[in-house]
Design goal:
Blueprint lengths: L1 H29 L7 H10 L1 H35 L1 H14 L8 H8 L3 H25 L3 H9 L4 H35 L8 H10 L3 H28 L2
Helix pairs in contact: 1-10, 2-10, 3-4, 3-6, 3-8, 3-9, 5-6, 6-8, 8-9, 8-10, 9-10
Length: 244
C-alpha cells in the first residue's frame, strides 16, 4: 500500500512539474496577459480555495456517477451482444449510427425532458461513455478463443459461470481501455454541460472567469480539470495493476 501511495505521489509530482514547465514556456513565449503566470494563478487558487473545492466536488460527482452508470449498463449489454450474434446483428447498426454523433448537441433535448438540474448533465456524460463501454466490451469478448468457451460448455458451466470465470477476466483490459478513452471525452463534454443552468462545476468556473476576464481564475479551473483527469487515470492504472 505504501508503495502504491509512493508511486502515486511521485507520478503526481512529475505530472505537475511537466505541466508547469509547459505552462511557463507558453507564458514566456506568448507574453500575453491572457496567459497568467503559474505563481499568480497559485495565489488565486489559494484565495478561492473553498469555492474551488465546491466546483471540484460538483464536477467529480457528475463524472463518477456517469462512469458508474455507464459500466453498470454498458458491461452487461456488451457481454450479451458478444454471446448472442443475432442480437449483435440487430443492434450494431444502431450503435454505429449513434457512436459518431456529437452527444453534446443533445443537451438541450435532455434539459427539455429531464430539467435543468444535474440529471440532464449526468445523462449527457452517460450517453457519451456508455457507447464506448458497449462496443469495446463486445469486441473484447469476441476475441476470446472458441476453445475456451467450448471447454466451459463441456464442463456444463452456466451462463453466469462463463461470464464470471471466462468473459469478465478476459475483457477487463477492454473495460479499462474504454474508461480511459471515455474520461477524456467526458471531461471535455463536462465543460460544455456545466455552462448551462448550474452554479457549481469546473466548466462553469472557467467560462464565468473568462467572461469576467479573470484569467488567473480561469487557469485555476483548467488546472483542476487536468488534475481531476490525472487522478481518474491513476485510479484506472491501479485497478489494472491489482488485476494481475
Amino acid at each position: 500500500m505504501k508503495r502504491v501511495q509512493s508511486n502515486f505521489f511521485r507520478s503526481l509530482f512529475l505530472g505537475i512539474l511537466s505541466y508547469l514547465a509547459v505552462w511557463i514556456l507558453l507564458y514566456i513565449l506568448s507574453n500575453n496577459h491572457a496567459i497568467p503566470s503559474p505563481i499568480v494563478t497559485g495565489i488565486k487558487m489559494w484565495d478561492i480555495k473553498e469555492l474551488l473545492g465546491l466546483h471540484i466536488i460538483a464536477s467529480s460527482l457528475r463524472i463518477f456517477i456517469a462512469l458508474l452508470l455507464a459500466v453498470l449498463v454498458g458491461l452487461p449489454i456488451g457481454i450479451l451482444l458478444s454471446m448472442f450474434p443475432k442480437s449483435d446483428r440487430l443492434l450494431s447498426p444502431l450503435l454505429y449510427f449513434l457512436y459518431p454523433l456529437p452527444k453534446v448537441a443533445f443537451l438541450p433535448i435532455f434539459m427539455l425532458f429531464w430539467g435543468l438540474g444535474n440529471f440532464s448533465k449526468i445523462l449527457l456524460l452517460f450517453s457519451i461513455i456508455v457507447l464506448q463501454v458497449i462496443i469495446l466490451v463486445r469486441d473484447g469478448a469476441k476475441t476470446i478463443p472458441e476453445n475456451y468457451q467450448r471447454i466451459m460448455t463441456n464442463f456444463q458451466a452456466s451462463i453466469w459461470q462463463q461470464i464470471r470465470y471466462l468473459i469478465l477476466p478476459a475483457i477487463f483490459p477492454n473495460i479499462l481501455a474504454s474508461l480511459r478513452v471515455s474520461i477524456g471525452i467526458a471531461l471535455a463534454s463536462l465543460f460544455f454541460a456545466e455552462n448551462y443552468a448550474t452554479d457549481y462545476g469546473l466548466g462553469y468556473l472557467i467560462l464565468s472567469a473568462w467572461t469576467k476576464m479573470d484569467y488567473p481564475e480561469m487557469f485555476a479551473g483548467i488546472f483542476c480539470i487536468a488534475l481531476l483527469g490525472f487522478i481518474l487515470f491513476r485510479v484506472i492504472d491501479s485497478l489494472e495493476r491489482f488485476s494481475y
